[in-house]
Design a protein that fits this description.
Layout lengths: L1 H14 L2 E6 L12 H21 L4 E8 L10 H8 L8 H11 L11 H11 L10 E4 L16
Parallel strand pairs: 1-2, 2-3
Helix pairs in contact: 3-4
Length: 157
Amino acid sequence: VWKSAKAVLPHMMEQGGGSIVMTSSINGLEPGANYVHYCAAKFGVVGVMKTLALEYASHGIRVNSVHPGAILTPMTSWQGAWDMMSGKPAGEGTEEDMLEAGYHFHALKGNGFLDPQRIADAALWLNSDLASSVTGISVPVDAGHLLIPGVNANPVK
């Protein structure tokens, strides 16, 4: 994230502005048990985003971040993800268990694991003229997951 921003900022300053959208995770906005390394990195993205948004606003450069919730990607296609999302002991979760748990992970009815296109849509909006007055914000794309009270490391039943 930092290296990409560092590479484009001089060019954006030269052209008089621009927009950067950084990708974090909902774990950049809430903790996740047994995920300290991942959460630290994702919270770090928020710090970088907010700092750069402040430092480069006077150059007409907007910096924001998107925070995907439970998304179907290669990152969720392995035993550890199945166990974590299903709440089952190590080695006992299945992909089907994980997919079912996805419906309890989001507040919006009917939303299981989200399509990656939803995150792309949010990033496109942030980069568009429609968001020309938006900078320094974190946009969760999580079907309302962050509305569910408590630490959400396990599925909500």
